[in-house]
Amino acid sequence: MPAFDRNKWLSPLSLLVTLGVIHLVDESILVPIILVPLWFVLFRPFNRSDLLMFLIAAVFIVGQNYSVLERGGFAFEEKDFLLMPFYEPFLWGFYYLNVKRFFSEDRERPRLEPRAFAGVGITAVCFSAFGGNDFRLLLATLVSTGILLWMFHRPYDLYYAAYALALGFVVEIFGVSTGLWSYPNPDFLGMPYWSATMWISVGILGRRFLIPFSEWLSGKPARRGRGR
Q: Where are the domains of the chain?
């Protein structure tokens, strides 16, 4: 089976397996010990850019999450370090790997552009500055997500945004329904509306920033195309 077709079912399946492990394993420190080797098997072969993408996402989310958690934007049931469970940073590496594998863009992927750095900065500032007030955070992220869509709106940008939104919806429903995390002022099925803008941003920035940035760091030749 071609890799492209294989990943169309492997990415959603890996998400379900991941959530199942989190639900069944009581000790949060054991979750990444189980999941990281499992992801390695499911998504092999790995290259250097995959590993860099995973690590960058994991490290970045520690600071981003903590800024929102400290302001009371949401709360985890388990607070092992910096108000979050041990497995949380690893999950974000997995989310981006999941999205990348689902699309498997073998053709020209978009090159890394200066405006992608601007998009990351705007999004990060919105969540850091307004993370303690749901209404202000929603307004801020509507603006930041609108800016992202204005800058990046080619078909595959929208595909990435839609897939990340669907992935995020499953993750959020799982988390709030099992009590692993909660939001102080939920709007819909235990989730705030800003959760949607967050996941849309995850998809767009994954394609336009994190994936090409990781490839650039890994020493891959720069791509000339602007993407589909």
A: 3-217
